[in-house]
UniProtKB/TrEMBL annotation:
Extent of the Lumazine-binding repeats: 1-97, 98-194
Assembly and oligomerization: Homotrimer.
Residue span(s) of domain Lumazine-binding: 1-97, 98-194
UniProt-listed CDD domains: Riboflavin_synthase_like
EC number: 2.5.1.9
Protein name: Riboflavin synthase
Enzymatic class: transferase
Single biological process term from Gene Ontology: riboflavin biosynthetic process
Organism of derivation: Micromonospora craterilacus
Protein purpose: Catalyzes the dismutation of two molecules of 6,7-dimethyl-8-ribityllumazine, resulting in the formation of riboflavin and 5-amino-6-(D-ribitylamino)uracil.
Length: 218
């Protein structure tokens, strides 16, 4: 689990295809590798990756084809900057919100509106994900925990403070750039539970042998 609070801006050192639909990604990140070991989890632009090797401030991770297809990591090239966050430790502060590092889809930067002290950025998102986005709710964009300021049919907008603009990749994202999106996991659980309840309520009554039907409540 992560919190969506980026610890470091890393740099992609190399992307090496290892099979028809997978790759080995090497990322330089002195902070996140300071205590990293084989098997640890590090979020790269919001995608939870498993460390397979650490060498001189550079960690390497295997990226499966499913991850490349479901996220924007497939477009990474050497020299690209990426948001990095180590897995949250029990007992640490939850500065953002609960983030799994499981990307739900890829969005796109639609517009940027600079202001005196912040910037409003609008993103397009897949129609299948729009139901999970609510005003003042949480969303993760490229691994950054953000609060939704406005919602449309197929887009949402957030406000980025100077710290977010300078310490994450979102400050340099241009219109048209792809971004990884992770919806609030609580919304997905609620949807699943309510859907199951609705299905149960709509089902036919079941008569159990030897069990009398309940009478009216008085």
């Amino acid at each position: 689990m992560f919190t969506g609070i980026v610890e470091e801006l890393g740099e992609v050192v190399g992307v090496t295809p290892t099979a028809q639909d997978s790759a080995l990604v090497a990322v330089r990140g002195p902070l996140v590798t300071s205590d990293a070991r084989h098997g640890d989890s590090i979020a790269v632009n919001g995608v939870c990756l498993t460390v397979v090797d650490v060498d001189g401030g550079v960690f390497t991770a295997d990226v499966m084809g499913e991850t490349l297809r479901r996220s924007a990591l497939g477009a990474l090239r050497a020299g690209d900057r990426v948001n990095l966050e180590r897995a949250a430790a029990l007992g640490s502060r939850l500065g953002g919100h609960l983030v799994q590092g499981h990307v739900d889809g890829v969005g796109e930067v639609l517009a940027r509106e600079p202001a005196a002290r912040w910037e409003t950025v609008r993103f397009r998102l897949p129609a299948t994900l729009s139901r999970y986005v609510v005003e003042k709710g949480s969303i993760t964009v490229d691994g950054v925990s953000l609060t939704v300021a406005e919602v449309g049919a197929d887009w949402f907008a957030v406000g980025l403070i100077p710290t977010t603009l300078s310490l994450t990749t979102l400050g340099a994202r241009a219109v048209g750039d792809p971004v990884n999106l992770e919806m609030d996991v609580l919304a997905k659980y609620v949807e699943r539970l309510l859907g199951a309840r609705a299905a149960d309520d709509a089902g036919p009554p079941v008569d159990l042998p030897g069990v009398a039907a309940p009478g009216p409540v008085r």
